[in-house]
Structures are given as C-alpha cells and as structure tokens.
Specification:
Blueprint: H1 2-42
C-alpha cells in the first residue's frame, strides 16, 4: 500500500518536472527570437 503511494507520488513529481521542462522550452522558444531580433536591432 505504502509502496504504491510512493510510486504514484514519484510519477506525479516526474510528470510535473516534465511539464516544467516543456514550459521552459515554450518560454525560450518564444523569448529567444525576440532577444535575437532586439540584439541585432541594437548593433
């Protein structure tokens, strides 16, 4: 019983970490082109 709870908690935290990584990729995918354009406009 306890082992099952630990496993399910592990799965949830693993899923949350994956969601965080996806979110970071989305943010960088959105932010990076804007930063590049901004830097090139400043040169």
């Amino acid at each position: 019983m306890l082992l099952n709870q630990i496993i399910s908690i592990g799965k949830v935290s693993n899923w949350k970490n994956k969601q965080k990584k996806l979110k970071m990729q989305e943010i960088w995918g959105w932010l990076l082109p804007k930063v590049v354009v901004y830097v090139f406009c400043r040169i």
